[in-house]
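Retry 2 of 3 after timeout on previous attempt. Resubmitting C-alpha cells to design endpoint.
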C-alpha cells in the first residue's frame, strides 16, 4: 500500500532504513555515537552504492534534522506498511517490505537475506529492540500484560458465607443497620458536633440491642460474647470513632463491671450501660504509667469510720489520661487505683467513681480536661481525669478478686499478689480481641478501595497499544497481593483466637492471653502498613478525604498503642513462650529428653539436607508442609537461642532485668515467629476445610502467598541459619511474583467477598 505526501528525499534503497531513521530521530537518540555507528555500517556494506551512501549519511547529519511534519509523514508511511504485516518481529523486515511498497524495488532472495542480517546488526548496535519498536507503527498490540484481567472463577457469596461462619446472621443485622440513612457520614471538622453524632450512632446501636449483647440475660443482654466481637468487627466498616466509642462504653466500661464486679454491681449498672442510659469510662492509663499498670499512682484509701473510699490523684502525672468518653459524655468510670489500708499498699483494685450528675455537670473533686483534637478518632471525647479526695461508698469497689471488710481488713480468694493482679487483667483480654478484629475490617476496607481502583485506573501501556490497568503491573501486584493474603490469614487467625477465648479453660488462660496480645500487635501493625500502601497505590486519589483511606489510616494508627504498646506486647508473648519452654524441661525425664534431642536432630537432618535447602521445584515450594516446617523451625530455634542467651547472661552475673533488656530485640522476634506460625496453621486449616468449594483453589494460592512472603521477608535469618541457600530464596522470590500475578485476576472478587456495604466504603474510586 503506497502512501506518499511529499518527496522523502531518499534514494530507493534507503527506504530500507526509514523505520530506523524514524526511531533515532523521533526519540532523539541520534548523537555522535549513533552517527559513528552509521558511518561504520555504511563503510562495510556492499549493497549500497556511493550515491546511496551519501544520501543516507545526509539524512543523519547534525545540520540536517528532519522537520516535524516530515517525521509525521515517515510515521504515516511506515504505519501503513506495518498494518499489512501480521507479525513483523524486526524493523529490518518492515524496512524491506516498505522499500518494495514505496518504490517497487525488486531484489533477489539472497540479497534480501543479506540486507536483513545487516540491518539487524545495525539495530543491535544502535540499541534498538526491534520487536518492541515495531509496535510504534501498529494500532493494536495485545500483550500478556494488557490481556490479563479480572475474572470471577468462584462463587463470591459462597466465600462470603465461609468467612462469616456461624456469625453470618449477626453480621447481616449489623450491616442492615449501618445502611440506614441515619448512619450517613458527617463532616468531622466540628469537634463537638462530630462527638455528639458519634454518641447518637452509639445510641442507635444500643437501641438495636447490640450494646448489651454480651451481658447476661438477667442484666438485659444475651450472654453472647462472640456476637459482641462480631458486632464490633462489622461496625468497623463504618466510622471508627463510633467503633471505639462503642468499645469503650459497652466493652471496657461495661465488661469491667461484668468481669471485676459481682452480682450487685451487675444488677445495678449493666442494664443502664447496655442501653447507654449510663455512659461511662475505663480509667486505667495514667500520664506516668501506660503499659505498666502495676505502677499506677492513683490511690484508694479506706475509711472504716464511714465505710467509704477516698480516691485521690497525688500529683499531675498521676492523672488518668486519654480516657475515652471522659471529656463530654461519661457519667461514671471504672477507676484503677492502688488500695491503701492503714498505710499499706495492697496493689491495684478497681472502683466505680461518679464523674457527672444527670445534667452533665462535673461533680465536686473531679477535674476533667479535654485532650483536644488528635491524629484520628476525633469523634471520641478523650480526656484527663484528676481526683481530689473524692469520696465513694464501700460498695463501689469491684470486689470479685479482692475486697475490704467493714473494719478495713483486706480479703481475697487469691493469695498471690502477682496472680491476683494478672487474673484481674486477664478478665479484660477481650479488648485485645476486639481491637485486631476492628483493625482487620479497616484493612479490608482499604484493600477493597485500592484493589478496585487499581483494576479500573489505567496508566501507560505498550507502544502502539492502549493504557493498562495499574493492577496489571507486577510491582503494583507485589504491593497489594501479599497484604491481601495476610489479611485473609489474619481473618482466620482471629476466628481461631475468638474460639479459643470462648471455650477457654483456666489452665489455658496464660497461653490465650499471649496469643491475644501477639495477634493484636501483629494485625494492628499489618493494618497500619497496609493502609499506607493502599494510600500510595491510589496516588493522589488516595489522599482525598472523600476516598476514605485518610480516615481509615489516621483512625487506626493508634490501634498499635491501644490495649498495650505492640512492642511491649510482643515481649509479653516471648516471655510466655520462654515460660512454656522452661516448663517443658522442668517436666522432662530421660525419655522426654531423648525424644527432644532426637526431634531436634531429625529437624536438622531433614530441613538442612543439601537437597532441601536448594530445592526450587514448584511442587515443593507450594507444599504447605514445607511452609509450616519453615515457620516452626524459625519459632523453635528463636525460642531455644533466646533461652540460652538469657541464661548465659545471668550465669555470667548480669541482673535478670538487664539480661532481658539486652535481649529485647531477640524477644520481639520470638513473639513474631510464634504468631506467624499460628496464623499460617490456621490459614492451612481453613484451606483444608474448604476442599470441594468453588473458592478452594484461590484460597490455597492466597495461603501459599502468605507463607512464601513470610519466608521471603525473613530470608536473611534463614540464610544465616543455613536453612535456605541463595538459589532457593531466589526461587521463592520468583514464586511470590508468580502467585501475585495469578491472584491478580481474582483480587476484585476476593475483596468483594468481604461484602462491605457500599454506603460504608463511600469512596468514589472504589466504584469507577
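Retry 2 succeeded. Sequence:
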Amino acid at each position: 500500500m503506497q502512501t506518499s505526501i511529499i518527496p522523502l528525499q531518499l534514494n530507493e534503497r534507503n527506504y530500507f532504513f526509514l523505520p530506523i531513521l524514524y526511531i533515532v530521530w523521533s526519540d532523539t537518540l541520534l548523537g555522535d555515537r549513533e552517527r559513528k555507528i552509521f558511518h561504520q555500517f555504511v563503510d562495510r556494506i556492499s549493497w549500497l552504492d556511493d550515491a546511496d551512501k551519501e544520501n543516507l549519511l545526509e539524512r543523519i547529519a547534525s545540520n540536517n534534522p528532519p522537520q516535524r511534519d516530515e517525521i509525521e509523514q515517515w510515521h504515516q508511511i511506515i504505519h501503513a506498511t506495518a498494518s499489512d504485516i501480521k507479525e513483523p518481529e524486526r524493523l529490518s523486515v518492515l524496512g524491506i517490505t516498505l522499500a518494495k511498497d514505496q518504490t517497487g524495488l525488486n531484489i533477489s532472495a539472497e540479497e534480501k537475506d543479506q540486507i536483513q542480517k545487516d540491518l539487524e546488526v545495525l539495530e543491535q548496535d544502535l540499541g534498538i529492540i526491534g520487536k518492541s519498536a515495531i509496535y510504534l507503527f501498529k494500532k493494536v498490540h495485545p500483550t500478556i500484560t494488557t490481556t490479563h484481567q479480572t475474572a470471577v472463577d468462584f462463587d463470591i457469596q459462597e466465600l462470603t458465607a465461609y468467612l462469616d461462619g456461624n456469625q453470618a446472621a449477626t453480621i447481616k443485622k449489623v450491616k442492615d443497620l449501618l445502611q440506614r440513612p441515619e448512619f450517613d457520614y458527617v463532616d468531622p471538622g466540628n469537634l463537638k458536633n462530630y462527638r455528639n453524632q458519634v454518641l447518637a450512632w452509639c445510641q442507635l446501636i444500643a437501641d438495636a440491642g447490640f450494646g448489651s449483647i454480651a451481658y447476661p440475660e438477667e442484666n438485659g443482654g444475651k450472654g453472647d460474647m462472640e456476637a459482641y466481637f462480631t458486632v464490633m468487627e462489622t461496625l468497623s466498616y463504618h466510622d471508627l470513632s463510633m467503633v471505639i466509642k462503642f468499645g469503650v462504653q459497652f466493652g471496657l466500661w461495661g465488661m469491667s463491671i461484668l468481669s471485676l464486679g459481682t452480682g450487685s454491681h451487675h444488677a445495678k449498672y449493666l442494664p443502664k450501660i447496655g442501653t447507654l442510659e449510663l455512659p461511662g469510662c475505663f480509667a486505667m492509663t495514667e500520664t506516668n504509667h501506660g503499659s505498666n499498670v502495676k505502677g499506677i499512682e492513683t490511690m484508694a484509701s479506706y475509711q472504716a469510720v464511714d465505710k467509704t473510699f477516698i480516691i485521690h490523684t497525688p500529683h499531675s502525672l498521676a492523672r488518668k489520661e486519654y480516657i475515652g468518653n471522659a471529656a463530654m459524655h461519661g457519667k461514671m468510670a471504672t477507676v484503677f487505683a492502688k488500695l491503701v489500708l492503714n498505710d499499706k499498699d495492697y496493689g491495684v483494685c478497681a472502683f466505680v467513681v461518679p464523674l457527672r450528675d444527670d445534667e452533665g455537670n462535673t461533680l465536686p473533686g473531679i477535674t476533667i480536661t479535654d485532650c483536644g483534637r488528635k491524629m484520628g478518632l476525633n469523634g471520641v471525647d478523650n480526656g484527663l481525669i484528676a481526683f481530689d479526695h473524692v469520696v465513694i461508698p464501700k460498695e463501689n469497689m469491684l470486689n470479685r478478686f479482692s475486697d475490704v471488710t467493714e473494719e478495713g481488713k483486706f480479703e481475697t480468694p487469691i493469695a498471690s499478689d502477682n496472680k491476683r493482679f494478672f487474673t484481674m487483667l486477664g478478665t479484660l483480654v477481650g479488648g485485645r480481641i476486639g481491637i485486631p478484629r476492628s483493625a482487620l475490617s479497616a484493612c479490608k476496607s482499604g484493600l477493597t478501595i485500592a484493589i478496585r481502583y487499581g483494576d479500573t485506573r489505567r496508566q501507560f501501556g505498550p507502544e502502539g497499544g492502549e493504557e493498562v490497568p495499574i493492577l496489571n503491573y507486577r510491582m503494583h501486584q507485589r504491593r497489594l497481593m501479599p497484604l491481601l493474603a495476610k489479611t485473609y490469614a489474619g481473618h482466620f487467625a482471629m476466628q481461631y483466637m475468638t474460639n479459643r477465648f470462648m471455650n477457654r479453660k483456666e489452665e489455658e488462660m496464660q497461653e490465650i492471653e499471649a496469643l491475644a496480645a501477639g495477634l493484636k500487635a501483629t494485625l494492628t501493625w499489618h493494618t497500619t502498613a497496609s493502609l499506607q500502601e493502599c494510600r500510595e497505590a491510589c496516588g493522589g486519589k488516595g489522599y482525598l478525604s472523600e476516598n476514605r483511606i485518610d480516615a481509615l489510616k489516621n483512625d487506626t494508627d493508634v490501634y498499635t498503642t491501644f490495649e498495650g504498646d505492640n512492642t511491649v506486647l510482643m515481649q509479653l508473648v516471648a516471655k510466655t513462650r520462654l515460660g512454656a519452654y522452661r516448663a517443658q524441661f522442668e517436666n522432662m525425664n530421660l525419655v522426654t529428653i531423648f525424644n527432644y534431642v532426637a526431634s531436634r536432630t531429625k529437624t536438622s537432618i531433614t530441613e538442612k539436607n543439601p537437597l532441601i535447602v536448594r530445592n526450587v521445584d514448584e511442587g515443593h515450594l507450594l507444599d504447605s508442609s514445607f511452609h509450616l516446617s519453615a515457620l516452626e523451625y524459625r519459632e523453635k530455634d528463636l525460642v531455644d537461642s533466646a533461652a540460652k542467651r538469657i541464661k548465659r547472661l545471668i550465669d555470667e552475673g548480669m541482673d535478670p532485668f538487664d539480661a532481658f533488656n539486652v535481649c529485647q530485640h531477640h524477644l520481639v522476634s520470638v513473639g513474631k515467629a510464634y504468631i506467624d506460625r499460628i496464623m499460617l496453621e490456621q490459614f492451612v486449616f481453613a484451606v483444608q476445610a474448604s476442599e470441594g468449594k468453588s473458592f478452594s483453589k484461590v484460597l490455597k494460592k492466597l495461603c501459599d502467598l502468605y507463607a512464601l512472603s513470610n519466608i521471603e521477608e525473613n530470608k536473611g535469618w534463614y540464610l544465616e541459619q543455613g536453612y535456605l541457600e541463595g538459589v532457593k530464596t531466589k526461587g521463592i522470590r520468583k514464586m511470590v511474583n508468580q502467585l501475585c500475578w495469578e491472584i491478580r485476576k481474582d483480587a476484585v472478587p476476593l475483596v468483594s467477598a468481604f461484602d462491605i456495604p457500599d454506603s460504608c466504603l463511600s469512596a468514589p474510586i472504589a466504584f469507577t
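Attempt log closed. The first helix runs from residue 18 to 26.
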